[in-house]
């Protein structure tokens, strides 16, 4: 069950924005038992986005989540790039257009904008790759898209964190099934990291868990995250390490 | 002058850590006039890191900055992966070993660690790809590495933000020359995004600048970043847009 994440936006490549979206998506996918194997970020460029989507599809992840570049401005080109990468046409989604029309009408009535009409930029957001299922945006104008293609579940989400998060929770996760993965963060007190390594490797062999470790402070503590499908299996892996002399504290 | 950034770490792929390192690196590179074309994140896995480095080298960036996975634990495998990707041996850097020895001796004397000896994990950090120039780590144990390979300047930096930042400022940027790129953030008050697009395209054609735009709020403001090599050129592009009726506020 492996997944990839693609975030799109020039502001991510100039460092003007820190990409917290991909961390949020990664956390949710990890909780569902997906192993996020790679994250990629490219700019608002049709050719670049297209190229990287094709590379990702060649690696055959089960899930690909794309975020960013769905808005009304000229450099929001993600849907077009997705369509081209999959050799599909962009087609008008009538219900999306209606929803976008309502969205701007409401903003107009609230006095947020001066013009409720659907200009080209606003209309553009209603075009999705042929065969895509629209994903509702409860927080903004641009719909997302869900496309199954060569066995990969592709979700295209907005880049505004509030919109992306709502769509991920309400529209994406329910389509990814119920399986849960649990993670447990521990702090191992140890002054010789080299003693820990063989024990972790043994634990990985004995139990159905994944373990990540990273140094915290100057070698006195190692942060450990044990991932598993059940509390019981995590508990058994932890008990095994404790028997071998590792002292744990909860959390970090 | 294009660049790529590769960050390495399982914690980035599980969403336990937000990758602020790559944004910091991207900002600094952008200021130097580099165009960061892609950012990639992979986990602490020799084969994955190796594979992605080879893909990046095939795209022939001028600069590749890699961050993460240089520490003493068993899953810090970035230097090994770099060496393998470049078909080079890992060789002992004597001056690095001496520096690491001193580092742990100091920590021991300050009472931070119980054992000043160089165990396997600590020694491992002194091995760099053959032909690499060591980069000083003023904030931690692990040295970085600078390698020129098939015309690509490769810098390998630690993942701890404090260590990475210090090494980037002191060891990397001085090796990338003096050229400066300036950016100016503006807020364009406009209620119809579609009117802005053709003006931006015209400005790009007339002036030696790059322009990024992204919506702020619900369509009343568009955030604009103009990048250029001189204040004068940015000012001219801005004046052109103002003449065409765009009203700007500074900053966002």
TrEMBL record, chains A, B:
Start and end residues of each MoaB/Mog domain: 4-179
InterPro entries in the record: CinA, CinA_Arc, MoaB/Mog-like_dom_sf, MoaB/Mog_dom
NCBIfam families: molyb_syn, PRK03670.1
Protein family per UniProt: Belongs to the CinA family.
Protein name: Protein A3L14_05770
Species, as recorded: Thermococcus thioreducens
């Amino acid at each position: 069950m492996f997944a990839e994440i693609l975030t799109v936006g020039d502001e991510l490549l100039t460092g003007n924005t820190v990409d917290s979206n991909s961390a949020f998506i990664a956390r949710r996918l990890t909780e569902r038992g997906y192993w996020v194997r790679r994250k990629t970020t490219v700019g608002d460029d049709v050719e670049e986005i297209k190229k990287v989507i094709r590379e990702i599809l060649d690696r055959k992840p089960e899930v690909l989540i794309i975020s960013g570049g769905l808005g009304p401005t000229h450099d929001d080109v993600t849907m077009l790039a997705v369509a081209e990468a999959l050799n599909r046409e962009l087609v008008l989604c009538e219900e999306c257009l209606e929803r976008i029309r309502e969205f701007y009408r409401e903003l107009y009535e609230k006095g947020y904008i001066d013009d409720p009409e659907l200009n080209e930029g606003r209309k553009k957001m209603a075009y999705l790759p042929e065969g895509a299922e629209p994903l509702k945006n409860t927080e903004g104008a641009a719909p997302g898209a869900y496309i199954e293609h060569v066995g990969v579940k592709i979700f295209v989400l907005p880049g505004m964190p509030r919109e992306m998060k709502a769509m991920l929770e309400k529209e994406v996760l329910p389509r990814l099934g119920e399986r849960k993965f649990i993670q447990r963060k521990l702090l191992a007190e140890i002054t010789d990291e080299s003693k820990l390594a063989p024990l972790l490797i043994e634990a990985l062999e004995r139990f159905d868990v994944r373990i990540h470790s990273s140094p915290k402070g100057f070698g006195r503590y190692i942060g450990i995250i044990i991932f598993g499908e059940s509390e019981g299996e995590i508990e058994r892996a932890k008990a095994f390490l404790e028997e071998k002399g590792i002292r744990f504290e909860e959390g970090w």
